[in-house]
Structures are given as structure tokens and as C-alpha cells.
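QA checklist item 7 of 12: single-chain prediction sanity check.
[x] sequence parsed
[x] length recorded as 606
[x] structure emitted
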Amino acid sequence: MEWYQDYPHVGYDLEGRKIYKPIRNKDELDEFLDKMENPDYWRTVHDKMTGADIKLTDEQVDLVHRLQKGQFGDVNYNPYEPAVDFFTHEIMIHPVTNRPADKRSFIPSLIEKEKVSRLVHAIKMGWIKPRKPKEDGPQYYDLWAKEDPNAILGRHKMHVPAPKMKLPGHEESYNPPPEYLLSEEERLAWEQQEPEERKLNFLPQAYKCLRAVPAFPRFIHERFERCLDLYLCPRQRKMRVNVDPEDLIPKLPKPRDLQPFPTTQALVYRGHTNLVRCISVSPTGQWLVSGSDDCSVKFWEVSTARCMKTIEVAGAVKSVAWNPNPAVCLVAVSVESSIVLLNPALGDKLLYSATDQQISGFQEPEEPYLQPVQWLAAEGDAYDKGVRLTVKHEKAVKHVAWHGKGDYFASVLPDNGNMQVLIHQVTKRRSQNPFRKSKGLVQCVLFHPIRPFFFVATQRYVRVYNLLKQELTKKLLTNCKWVSSMAIHPGGDNLICGSYDSKLAWFDLDLSTKPYKVLRHHKKALRGVSFHKHYPLFASASDDGSVIVCHGMVYNDLLQNPLIVPVKVLKGHEITRDLGVLDVTFHPTQPWLFSSGADATIRLFT
């Protein structure tokens, strides 16, 4: 039966079909209840062959009792019947049979004779040896008999010398200097201490001369302890691995081999009167837009640091984003509870007038549909200032991000319950809430540069959604307490997240949902992170007033891990009201870096 323990059957019938075990689903509790309630429980046994519970009859119970007492199983068997004498004890005169005896019974056997002669010959030749008598004495083995005398770990080479005893000092002198003698309080404290805790295992004493020194009372005790130490000491030779500490440091290339990257401050853009929260560069790299807490949006010429235009808005600017499509001249600005789309009218006149025509050529649909926001076209003064559209939300907007094609943008409303993220389409002036319910406090969002993925960063996680399939693809665990910002590599397979607990996590999206590397280069909270579009560079801005530029090379070979090397710390911003650098972004074509700070300046590092 034990062969079938792990199988659902107990054997096969004549046709060769499996005989299945009956379904037995009695657990301990059923067994206990059965024991308590079933009066025949004591006479019920489990048949392993059929798996059924069989109730024993009275005869079977009697049989078990008899066998337990060591009696015969059959009731009717009498072990004490009179013996029948089959063979008589009297010796007969005549034999039982009268057959004459064989000749071979009284003639020596020739075959045996031949066997004996062979054995005698083998003994003479020494092929068969007589058995040695067994030695009953005790046997001893040589432990080291098989040891190689030339081995490195040979016994003679494994000798560990006994540790030397500490040489006596001044305190063991028969007449020590007075500072070694204990005062009364020190003596009492010494006596109250455990023997293991005492610094000295004896009391220093002073005698006038060497003749007055008595015998040391603990001499035998101390020698005995020393002998115990020597013979109980576990002597083991530790094989030390000689490692050059230089080999343990990863071989990183020198920063000068990884040029170009921004190293020096080239320009300072001054003009704002309050902290500059956010900046964005036009896709051509000619213009820069900045949003500040002084309720203004300024447009700068990158190469000269000249302020081309200032647009006053209704409140502090939380986020600005220049449309990434070079054929559209639009800037999204989040101000309090609305997103304002501005046309800065800079650069190519054909471009910005085409953008205006596209916006003004919008046809209202016949059937108005319900939207979570209100789209308002600008008129009058606002239009002259450059405002083209205003998207009014119910709550304050914290962050705005464009899709790479430049028609869609997403906004983040952290206090808006289930509508924390909204996606808007400019050409159709439609808005939608992509999520039924919100998971956590959304910090920022991102569109994937190539594929239809949408990144939503909450405080601890980054969720990656597939917009076509409308499902959650991945959930990245940032290992940070509070995510502040994120940026995606232009290749689309790597993501960086900055957090307020001064960590920067680099995710390889194909590799794992946990960070590939966590960089802790900054001393204070990270406010912004950014990737360069063409160069293998990324940067992080922090409240410690510095921007750290790192070389982040992503290889086309999928088996090779990204190479991350910090190359430069850029300083220049002054810390104002405990805030340092608030936003950082790269020039779209040059290896230049823009940073905006709480000291109301924007700086260009080249």
C-alpha cells in the first residue's frame, strides 16, 4: 500500500483500470467530534485498502481481545489435547524396510578423494593460507598516518604559539607609586564588582621591603587558570584572503573622458522678485519660459539672458511646460485652479500665427458633453497678453505635462479625490478623467516618449498604465518616503525619480520593479530631476543649493547594465528660506543645463 501513498489510486482491477481511493476528508476536528458522539467509535477501524470505516462485529472484537492476551485465534482450538504417539518408543527387532544397503555407503568416495588432493596441493603451493587467530587486544589508529608531510596545512605548520601573558606593571610592584594604591572607596567599589568587570584582578599593596612581601595567595589558582586557558584555547588558523582594497572599488571612467557635460555657470537670468518654481525650454532651444511665485511668467532669450516678455497671471505659477511639438507654439502654465495656454509669439512668425489659426478655427460640437473642466477662449486684454485658452478646474493644479506629439496634456490636482489626474486634448477641447478611483496622493505624471504608456507617481509608488489597453502594466516600488519628481530617458526604458528624503532612484523598466540604483549624493530634499534628449546626461536639483550632473549611459545591448557616473556638482544658487534649487532642465540640443532657484534667479551652466 505504501507504494500508492502519493497517488490517487490504490491499484488496478482485472481490466487494468485504476481503482481510486475513496475521498476521505475527515480532519482532526471531525475525528474528535466522532470520538465524542459516536458510541461505536471504539470498535470502528479504518480500512486502508478501501479507505472505508468498518465497524467490527462482536466475534471480531473477541478475536482481537484473544490475540492481545496471547491466546489462539480460533475459539474451538484446544491446545491441551492428548498427544498421539506416532513413533513408538519401543525399539523394534525388525527394520522398517528390508532393502539391502548401498555399496557406496561403506566404500571411500573417489570424488571426495580428488577434492582433498586438490586442496592439499593448494595448501602446499601456498595458495590457501590457514586462518589467522583473532587478536583480542585493543586496537589503536594513527590519526596522522595518511597525512601528506608536504601539505601547507601540515600539523607542524599549524602550530599556533600560546598567547603571552601581560608583563607586570607598576601596580604589581611590592612598593608601587602612591597613585596606584586604591583609596577606601575604590577598594569597596572593587570588591562589589563582578570578577569579570574588574580592571585589576588583585589589589595593589605597598610593603616596606622585599623581605616583608608574603607569598601570593592566589598563585596556584592563577597557574591553574593559565593551564586551563592554554589547553582549552580553540586554536584555529584563519586563512586570510589578501585583497587589494583598490580592487573593491568599481572601475569608473574618469569624468574628463565622459565630456561634454555642463561645468561652468555661463549666464544668470535675473528679473523675478520671488522664488522661481518652474522652467521649461522651447523645442528649438532658443527660448526659455519661467514661472514664479511673484505671479508672473517670463520668456527669456537663452543666448543673451534678455527677458523678451512678461505675462502677469492671477496667482503663483506652480508648473510651466512648453509644447514639445516644434510646429506648435504653445506654453501650458498652471495657475491656482486653472491651466492657461499661452502663445508667446516668439521666433518664427509663420509658426505662431499658424498656432493661433488652429486654435481659433475650433468648431463647437452640436451636442455638448459633460466635462470635468471648463474650456474658455481668451478675449480682449487677455488675448493681447498672449493667453489663448484657459482650462478651469475645480481644485488647485499642481503639475502639467505634455504628450510628445503636442496635442494632449495632463494635469495633476492633488486634493481632488478620484479626479486627481485629468488628460486634455487641445484640438478638440475635450477633457477626461482616465481613472475610476485614485490610488494615493498623485505627485506628478509623465507621458512615455514613444509608447502609449502613462506614468503616475504617488508618494511611494510609480504606476505605469497602458493607455491603449486601459490597464495597469507595472507598479514601481521607489523605496522612498515621498516622491517629488520624475523624468524618463528618451529611449523610454529607464526612469529616474527624485524624492524629498534626498534619494534618486534609477529604474530599468525591463529589469525590475525595484530601483536598479539608488543615489544618495544630495544632503537635502530633491526638487527636480531631468534627462537630456540626446546626450547621456541626467541631473538632479536639491534644497542643498546644488545641482548634480551624472553621466547615465544606456546601451543598446540589453545584457549590459546602464553606466551611472556622477561627473559634476554645480553650485551657484543661494539657499533662501531653506529652499535651494527648485527645478532643473536640459537644453534640447546642447549639453547645457538650466536651473531655477529660490533666490529668484535662473542660471545656465554650459
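[x] summary fact logged: Residues 110-125 form the longest helix (16 residues).
[ ] second reviewer sign-off
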